[in-house]
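QA checklist item 7 of 12: single-chain prediction sanity check.
[x] sequence parsed
[x] length recorded as 452
[x] structure emitted
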Amino acid sequence: MINIIREKSFYKSLGKLAFPLALQNLISVGVAMTDTVMLGRLGEAAISASSLANQLYFIFTFILFGLSGGSIVLAAQYWGKGDKITISKVMGITLRFSISIGILFTFIGLVFPAQFMTLYTKDAEVISAGVRYLHFVAPSYVLSSISVIYLAIMRSMENVRISLFTSGISFVVNVILNSVFIFGLVGAPKMGVAGAALATLIARGVEFTIAVVYVTFINKNFHFHFHHLFTNDKALFKDYIRYSGPVILNESLWGAGISVQAAIIGNLGKYASAAANIVSVVQRLTTVLIFGVCDSATVLLGKKIGAGDEKGAKAAANTFVILSGCLGLFSSLLVVAIGSAAISSGVFTMTSVTEGYVHIMLYGAAVFVFLQAISATNIVGIMRAGGDTRVAMLIDVCTLWFVSLPVGLLAGYFFKLEPPFVYLCMSCDEMIKVVLCLFRFKSGKWLHNVTR
């Protein structure tokens, strides 16, 4: 009989973390969906421009997710140990990296926007709109480099309310200002794609302000010691590189790989790019609870391991694997149901060509979501919580770069398949990933206590 957790207190703790995190993810999807719907009124070129220009932020956010996820690997276990000073030091190390990278990506967006856009499309109209978008949105990267790390450290200590509150306020600001600047309401200039970027910049500024004020002045349970931004703790830095480094590399290479996928689709035309963007929004919408559970698993498992409860950690991991399969099946059904409803109701403005592409892609996304639920729970939740970050990275990155991308390139440019089938081919890596993840999980070699 599989050893799973039956205590109500565990599921109560899971609910307190997973549902707010899922709601936060839903809000993030809402921002992307609002941009897609509003810019969709301007045509496929506007959707493609914002989608492809945002690949720069997409790559940047995966580096941030790597940094924040890497910090959580250590911070969650030190939280279980009750060592807040070390958590502050971990935060300082992470901020040194994130701020530097934020400045670099801002520089790329401001100085080389046209060159960046040409990596994804040859359409002059899309490139021009994308350049305008990047000029406005690029300064927000530095703000995100701080707020994302602040909020991640809060999550590692089971404080998800501030993340939810911050995301909610940012969403409201973004939606209102999108309407104002894209369409020129209440006397504002009609800015189109650039208006969406300006709204995003202001919303991220609000997010940054709330996060910094909360951690600095309001939170009584944890305080970041500013001098830890410059503290040189060699032993902790070595642990950070050993356990967090693979997570950072994992997310960075995974984000870059997904961006290459977008380039493959983008170079097949603006209709293919628009269809993939629409399906991506639906897919993200239906997986918010899955990733809420993944993030919760990282914190709850990390806390048990840091506290020395190895038996409880294994039982919790078994529970998360079973839960991931159930959530994956439910979410895959939602992909088809919500996607089809959105098309038939006219939520997205698209041509018949784009609509045909979307219909086919949705069914592929449904299968992909089921498999992703299992693999993501293992990689992001269980293996990272257990400090098994190097193997997690190898599974996640190698299947993407050595299976998905080569197959996609062959399908699109050698066999010259239609865009929807290229999209489906690039999802084949998930089947291999699930098998590898479950094999590693069954071995039990994923569990390591990384605290000193």
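[x] summary fact logged: Residues 328 and 439 are 19 Å apart (CA to CA).
[ ] second reviewer sign-off
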